[in-house]
Specification:
Helix 1 packs parallel to helix 7 (about 255-270), helix 4 (about 165-185) crosses helix 8 (about 290-295) and helix 6 packs across helix 7. The protein is α/β, with parallel strands linked by helices. The protein is about 30% helix and about 15% strand. The protein is globular, with a radius of gyration of 20 Å. The model is unreliable at about 1-25 and about 30-40 (pLDDT under 50). The protein is built from 9 helices and 12 strands. The strands form 3 sheets. Strands 3, 5, 6, 7, 10, 11 and 12 form a 7-stranded parallel sheet that branches. It binds zinc ion. Zinc ion binds near residues 22, 100, 101, 151 and 155.
């Protein structure tokens, strides 16, 4: 856990660094089959992919999606009143659901199932490394019509003074390239969330030059601290009832969040809250060098992981 406090200033936006944390967990190891991608994205030229729409809704009592907004990310706008107070676009009772630190087995698919049952949507901020561990899960997020941004390559705290400016940029750029690689074609939205909501001013400026929007939040569920699902529900409902609207920060990485979500979404519906979908006007432009570097990362499989029997067959002897 990391708590940082301090005032930093970037452009015309004043920022108060606050707390959120992520407990790092290594990927599944051992005999369990590697959740590896089958291969690098096909090199064949293809038209710009169009993301599938959300499935038709068969639940008349679903939370649903009340409004979809398109975000022009030119200049790197900031969202979420915990740090950025310029863009007050949500109406009374409107909420945005956001999910960080995935994709992750079990929990992310569970979140997707709940969102589908409630015919609603959110923004996912995956960690680049996790996207390379479980690209097929991230593709499920995309296929379900949700918005996908990025949350750095390794969840490094970009305020860490030990990191050079170049290393901070690498964390940002490699994260986006990893998400793009995992999606095997489509680029994510130019939506970025800093680990632990810690915003080094020079990286805020950098994202502006990259036309990437920054997402803080209006209310933090602190689900990573919750000892049980009910705590997540109680925290979110208490905070949203106080604020009346807002961008909600949760983690699809967290088991308790996945377990809390069905009840939480029902409570939000009963409370009169309406979900807003946030789309990017255009996808992020990844930097080709990082797309290439990604393939050199040691953890990325560079060869097929198919069993030998499907690769080598005796045809005569
Ligand atoms: Zn995180």
């Amino acid at each position: 856990m990391r708590i940082a406090a301090g005032l930093i200033f970037a452009g015309a936006v004043s920022l108060l660094a606050s707390s959120t944390a992520w407990s790092q967990t290594p990927p599944a190891k051992g005999a369990a089959a590697p959740a590896a991608p089958q291969a690098a994205p096909a090199a064949a030229p293809a038209p710009a992919p169009t993301q599938p729409a959300r499935a038709a809704c068969n639940n008349p009592n679903a939370l649903g999606v009340a409004r979809t907004v398109e975000i022009d990310t030119a200049g790197g706008p900031g969202f979420g009143f915990e740090h950025f107070k310029d863009l007050d676009f949500l109406r009374d009772k409107e909420i945005v659901l956001t999910f960080d630190d995935g994709p992750w087995p079990v929990n992310t698919p569970s979140v997707l199932k709940t969102l589908a049952e409630e015919c609603t949507t959110g923004i996912f901020f995956p960690i680049g490394k996790h996207a390379t561990y479980y690209p097929e899960i991230l593709r499920q997020v995309y296929a379900a019509g949700h918005t996908i941004g990025s949350h750095t390559w390794s969840h490094a705290a970009l305020v860490n003074k030990k990191l050079s400016e170049q290393q901070r940029k690498d964390e940002i750029e490699l994260g986006f390239s990893a998400v793009k690689w995992a999606l095997a074609g489509p680029s994510p939205a130019p939506f970025f969330r800093f680990p632990a909501l810690q915003h080094p001013p020079e990286m805020v400026t950098y994202l502006g030059t990259r036309n990437i929007a920054i997402f803080s939040c209006d209310l933090d569920s602190f689900d990573f601290k919750a000892s049980k699902p009910q705590t997540v529900i109680d925290t979110v409902m208490r905070k949203v009832d106080k604020l009346g609207k807002g961008i909600i920060l949760m983690h699809d990485f967290q088991k308790h969040t996945a377990e809390a979500l069905p009840e939480l979404l029902k409570k939000l519906k009963a409370g009169g809250y309406k979900v807003v979908a946030m789309r990017a006007k255009s996808p992020v432009q990844t930097i080709p060098q990082y797309d290439e570097d990604l393939h050199k990362q040691a953890k990325l499989p560079t060869v097929s992981s198919r069993p030998v029997s499907s690769v080598v067959q005796t045809i005569s002897e």
